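Database export, one record per block. Field names are fixed; values are copied verbatim from the stored entry.
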Amino acid sequence: MTEHPLGAIILTGGASRRMGADKATQLWGQERAVDLVAGLAASAGAALVISAGPGRLGLPRALDAAPHGGPVGGILSGLAWLGGRCAKVLVLAVDAPTLRLADIAPLLSAPSPGAVFAGLPLPMVLDPHAAPADAAADWPVRRFAERSGLAQLEPNAGSLARLRGANTPQEQAGLLG
C-alpha cells in the first residue's frame, strides 16, 4: 500500500501556554510557523504533509485522539491518518520553523527504522511500521523513539537552537534575530 517514499506530520496540538498565542499561526517574518514547517517538509521530499492537532491550518489534518494529550498522541493520530501510504515519516514540531533542510538531512538519510537527534525528541524520521503497537498518547516522545528502535544521532552544534525551536516569545526573538 506504500505510495510515497516520505510523508510528514507537523505537530500542532500543543496549548502554546508559554508562547501566549497559537504557535502554528504565529508569524515568523511574513509567514506562519505552520507554513514554514510545511515548506521544509515539502523541500525534504514529503509527498503528503499533514498537521496533527485541532486547528484548521490549510493542510490535511489528523485530529488528536486525545486532544492536548501530548506529542505522541499527535504522532499516533498522524500515522493512523497516513495509513501506511508512506515508507518513511518525518515528524516535525510546529515550534521549529527556522529549521533548515541541512539540519534534518542526517535524519532523512538514516536507515530504517529511522532516527532522532540525541537529547532532542523531535524532529524524527521513522518507518511507520516501527511504531510500537502498544504506544499510548501520553507516552514521552523519548520513550516512543526508543521503543520504535530509532537511532540517536549527534546533532550539529550550529543547529541546536533551530532544532529546539521556540516555546516563548524570547526564544522566538532569539531565533529571528
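Remark 1: The chain has a mean pLDDT of 90.
Remark 2: Residues 98 and 173 are 12 Å apart (CA to CA).
End of record.
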